[in-house]
Each structure stands twice: as structure tokens, then as C-alpha cells.
Known about the structure:
The protein is α/β, with parallel strands linked by helices. It is built from 5 helices and 5 strands; from the N terminus they run βαβαβαβαβα.
Amino acid sequence: MAAPGPIRVVVAKPGLDGHDRGAKVIARALRDAGMEVVYTGLHQTPEQIVDTAIQEDADAIGLSILSGAHNTLFARVLALLAERDAADITVFGGGIIPDEDIPALRGLGVAAVFTPGAATGDIVRWVREHVGEGAADAPGADDAPEL
Length: 147
């Protein structure tokens, strides 16, 4: 986990998905809430995303996936974090993810999944309560949304 200070979040668009408006909206909302945000841009590989998170000493990675490859991409990012002794970096995400896939993603270790219509304020609040210093002590820290 990163040093004390603002929560550091890498927001990423993995794979071939070419639509990044939602990722940019979330990145801006997190930044406006006082977090340090690194937006990686489009067409990132899981390796590039994990490299960035480690280099930036991130507390969390937020993946935006609209392509339908969410099961593969989340699993690969989580596996790479484990391989690189960085499993303490919280992974959350959102996009077009069918409700029936969310339990499996949560089982892999995805901390939260936000689906279309999730309010940016809810996402910011969740990140504040579940990522960074003292997150484990926050009220409801065991309750991750399926929004």
C-alpha cells in the first residue's frame, strides 16, 4: 500500500475497448475529490496497467471495461498483482458487466463492481471508505457494492 497522503488511483481502459468517456468522468470525479489519479489511456494491456500501478505507488486500480472481456481482464490484472507482490493494491471497476458475472469477479478479488448508472458520488465515497489508510476501519468496510 502507498505512503500516507492522498489516495492514489490508476484508472485504466484495458483491451481493445475504444470508448473512454466513463473512465474520464470517474477519473475527474476522484481527482476533484482530492485523490491523485493517473489515467492510462486507451488500449492498455494488463501488464502495462499493473506496471503503472506499481511505479505510481497506487492504492487502487479502477478498470473500465465495456468490451465484454471483463472476466479475462480482471483475472489477469489480479494475477499479475499477486505475481509482483502487489496484491495489496485494491482492484475495482465498472462498465458493461452482466449481473450474473459479478459474483465470480468478486470471488476473484475484485473489490467492487459499478455498473451503468452508478453515481460518481457513490464511487468516490466507496473509494474513500475502502481504499488507502484506515480503510479497513471504515464503517461498512466489508460491504462492497454491486451497483
